[in-house]
């Protein structure tokens, strides 16, 4: 049976003032997939993530989710469609405790499954359970990233957008986070769209990947194909992990 397309980005152009950041981007994510978007810093990866979520708006092109056009939809309505985002820089609520941050994530679902879902995220990230009464701003960088992902999961998303989850973290913490993403995909069938500068880790994790250069998607293929591609290796993997 053919995979069902969950997210479709067609010909999307995004601007900051008069500067075009995305030049007619085409990307698709099928239900149950992990799809990675890799590229250098400043390539437009985070801009695409934010455009999908409605801020900034696409000035041209179309974004559909589960067959519904969301291009002009306000961000809070996009979130209600069960798209959740763990943004670049984590953006947790620093003055709130771990528990309160999770409650904010669950508020979209009106807290209906809070106990069940918090137990799930504590199983994925046991460190958060140990820190349950601690303020978010006092957590380590790795713990804040775990909390950012956990808060997004509390909304019971159909699609999880992850923007640079490994940025600035120690390799052991990165492994824990990538293992958690793999586990969610395998056991819950969660669809994940992942932006990463850590090309090796992202492509190993992903079913498919896209390469972005200066606001354009220049290559696409399976994770295995892109890992083996000489151009990808030269640009993103040489001198790194193999």
Automatic annotation (TrEMBL):
Pfam families: ABC_tran
Domain of life of the source: Bacteria
Biological processes per GO annotation: L-amino acid transport
Keyword ATP-binding: yes
Molecular function terms, GO-annotated: ATP binding; ATP hydrolysis activity; branched-chain amino acid transmembrane transporter activity
SUPFAM superfamilies named in the record: P-loop containing nucleoside triphosphate hydrolases
Keyword Transport included in the entry's annotation: yes
Residue intervals of the ABC transporter domain: 7-239
Keywords: Amino-acid transport, ATP-binding, Nucleotide-binding, Transport
Family to which the UniProt record says this protein belongs: Belongs to the ABC transporter superfamily.
Protein's recorded name: ABC transporter
Organism: Mesorhizobium alhagi CCNWXJ12-2
């Amino acid at each position: 049976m053919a995979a069902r397309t969950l997210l479709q980005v067609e010909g999307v152009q995004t601007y900051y003032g008069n500067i075009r950041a995305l030049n007619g981007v085409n990307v698709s994510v099928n239900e149950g997939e992990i799809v990675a978007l890799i590229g250098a810093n400043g390539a437009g990866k985070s801009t695409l993530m934010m455009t999908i979520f409605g801020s900034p708006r696409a000035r041209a092109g179309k974004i559909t989710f589960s067959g519904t056009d969301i291009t002009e939809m306000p961000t809070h309505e996009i979130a209600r469609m069960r798209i959740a985002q763990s943004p670049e820089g984590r953006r947790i609520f620093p003055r709130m405790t771990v528990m309160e941050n999770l409650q904010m994530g669950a508020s979209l679902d009106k807290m209906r499954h809070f106990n069940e879902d918090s137990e799930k995220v504590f199983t994925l990230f046991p460190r958060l359970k140990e820190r349950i009464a601690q303020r978010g701003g006092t957590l380590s960088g790795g713990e804040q990233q775990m909390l950012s992902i956990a808060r997004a999961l509390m909304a019971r998303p159909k699609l999880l957008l992850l923007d640079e989850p490994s940025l600035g973290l120690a390799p052991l913490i990165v492994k824990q986070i990538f293992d958690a993403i793999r586990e969610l995909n395998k056991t819950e069938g969660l669809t994940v769209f992942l932006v990463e500068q850590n090309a090796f880790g992202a492509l190993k994790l992903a079913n498919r990947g896209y390469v972005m250069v200066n606001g354009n998607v220049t290559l696409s293929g399976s994770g295995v194909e892109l890992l083996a591609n000489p151009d990808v290796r030269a640009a993103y993997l040489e001198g790194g992990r193999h």
